[in-house]
Amino acid sequence: xxxxxxxxxxxxxxxxxxxxxxxxxxxxxxxxxxxxxxxxxxxxxxxxxxxxxxxxxxxxxxxxxxxxxxxxxxxxxxxxxxxxxxxxxxxxxxxxxxxxxxxxxxxxxxxxxxxxxxxxxxxxxxxxxxxxxxxxxxxxxxxxxxxxxxxxxxxxxxxxxxxxxxxxxxxxxxxxxxxxxxxxxxxxxxxxxxxxxxxxxxxxxxxxxxxxxxxxxxxxxxxxxxxxxxxxxxxxxxxxxxxxxxxxxxxxxxxxxxxxxxxxxxxxxxxxxxxxxxxxxxxxxxxxxxxxxxxxxxxxxxxxxxxxxxxxxxxxxxxxxxxxxxxxxxxxx
Length: 333
Description:
The protein has helices at 2-12, 16-23, 31-43, 71-85, 102-111, 132-140, 163-176, 192-205, 221-233, 244-256, 290-307, and strands at residues 59-64, 89-94, 116-120, 144-147, 158-161, 182-186, 214-216, 238-241, 266-271, 284-287, 314-317, 320-322. By secondary structure, the protein is of the alpha/beta class. The chain folds into 3 domains: 2-55, Orthogonal Bundle (434 Repressor (Amino-terminal Domain)), CATH 1.10.260; 59-161 and 289-317, Response regulator (Rossmann fold); 163-288, Rossmann fold (3-Layer(aba) Sandwich). Strand 8 (238-241), helix 10 (244-256) and strand 9 form a beta-alpha-beta unit. The radius of gyration is 23 Å and the shape is elongated. The termini are far apart. Keywords: DNA-binding, Transcription, Transcription regulation.
């Protein structure tokens, strides 16, 4: 009991005596302090006293696939801030290589009796991944929102960037610069947003041969370097990438082959994550409206929690092409 009091007091930033007063329902504690103590109790995984169990703090899980890609910390900042403004306590769960899998995070969030969960870039976006933990959320009737495209059969509402528009913008930009041999570096087979981007490429080119100028990669810089190397060696002069991280890998590939960016090869990213203005050259990319999407995801979740409204639709947000130094006119031989 003493250990629990000390941990909760440290988490809430109050004295052990204050924690004791809250847990015993005594007066002399402000409502803000009382809420802080009860939230700390929930976050640490301790059971509330029986008489306080009906007042569980409103926790919301935010599950991210990683934090190395700057786009995910940017989304987390928007979502956690918006949740706090709506009276919810965000619980951030970020996966790492060899760390806690997404399914275990779901179990932990269920144990903490969260009010809902927002996922970004999870296994819901992979057709060949296990989705059993999502079905557990459905069975519990827990409100869920997915950020960006996922498999349709899960039935959760989604807040997505319009991948078709993103490809149209990137492809149109490269074509306006005179590029005809345009390739693409996408995520793995079965990655739904990548599948959408490929479908859009085939649509704008009106040619099934365009698929021959597409390479798959893990969402890593080194994976993209390997994929882009194959495209450059085939004579591609413009490369559209499914993320900024992949685009940086493509630039590295071109340079290792002795090519200049953008003089020999133009590269377009996707996300417009932090520091893309500071790369060499600054990256031309398709910007996801992360702030608007993050707020929309919170709005959808809160509507489900507070109003018991049901959603299964997908909200599509239009991206914006941001032209910088990694694209230029095709070199005329």
